Amino acid sequence: MQTQTIGNESKPVFIKMAISAWDTYNDRLNKLLATLTDEELLAETSPGRNTGIYLIGHLVAVNDGLFPILGFGERLYPELDKIFLHSPDKSGHQMPSVTELKQYWNKVNTKLTDHITQMSADEWFSRHNNVSETDFAKEPYRNKLNIILNRTSHTSYHLGQLAYLLKKQSGNASLPFIP
Q1: Around Cβ 79, how many Cβ atoms within 10 Å?
Q2: First to last CA, the chain
Q3: Contacts of 61 (CB under 8 A, 6+ apart)
Q4: Distances in whole angstroms, Cα of residue 2 to Cα of each of 7, 103, 135, 139, 174
Q5: Residue 170 pLDDT grade (very low, low, confident, very high; cuts 50, 70, 90)
Q6: Is the pLDDT of residue 169 over 60?
Q7: pLDDT at residue 8, as a whole number
Q8: Which of 57, 64, 137, 127 is nearest to 89 (CA)?
Q9: pLDDT of residue 18
């Protein structure tokens, strides 16, 4: 497969598209979290599936992992990995409260947004820290912007799971957090 580079004039458009999607799904998740009660987030999204609190903790841990991957510094909550990345829901680990996880979510995403808004176009198309220089030379699409695209998709997936908690609440399929 032959690889082509993106011209400098196109980079801002691609970046705008990716960051806009990132912002949209984070906003949708924030609206859903504002709608659901702590009790509802403690429930399973469907019988035998993950609880809402576990999914929120998982999303916090994954987004927190972006700091070192994108070169933004150290993680804020590395202790969440054991609970939300390396163990399944209901594994017996002591979880932070729903309120704490919502605060962690807001703090992680606020700090990420601060870094994201300061990045240049060239930085977005540079190598992320989970790929070697050799591999990046062969596969330049393994860049920082691709990480944001991947994590946006990840958030979207779990947002869909969390929406089942809203259906339980209202008894219908309307999703008021999606315009």
Answers
A1: 12
A2: 39
A3: 77, 80, 81, 83, 84, 85
A4: 16, 45, 15, 10, 45
A5: low
A6: no
A7: 72
A8: 57
A9: 97
Query: What's the pLDDT score for residue 171?
Result: 56
* 66 burial level (CB within 10 Å; 0-12, 13-18, 19+): buried
Beta-ladder partners of 143:
127
pLDDT of residue 4: 57
Contact 25, 19 (CB under 8 A): no
Q: Residue 138: pLDDT above 90? A: yes
pLDDT of the residue at 14: 94
Give the pLDDT mean for 58-69: 98
pTM of the model: 0.90
Residue 142 three-state SS: coil
Our measurement of the distance from residue 22's CA atom to the centroid of its chain's CA atoms, rounded to an integer in Å, reads 8
Q: Which residues of 100-116 are buried (b: 16+ CB within 10 A; e: fewer)?
A: ebbebbeebbebbeeeb
At position 91, the amino acid (one-letter code) is S
Q: What gap in Å lies between CA 162 and CA 17, rounded to an integer?
A: 25
Mean predicted confidence (pLDDT) in 117-135: 97
152/148 Cα distance (integer angstroms): 6
Residues paired with 51 in a beta bridge: 44
Contact status, residue 154 vs residue 23, Cβ threshold 8 Å? no
Q: Which amino acid is at 113?
A: T
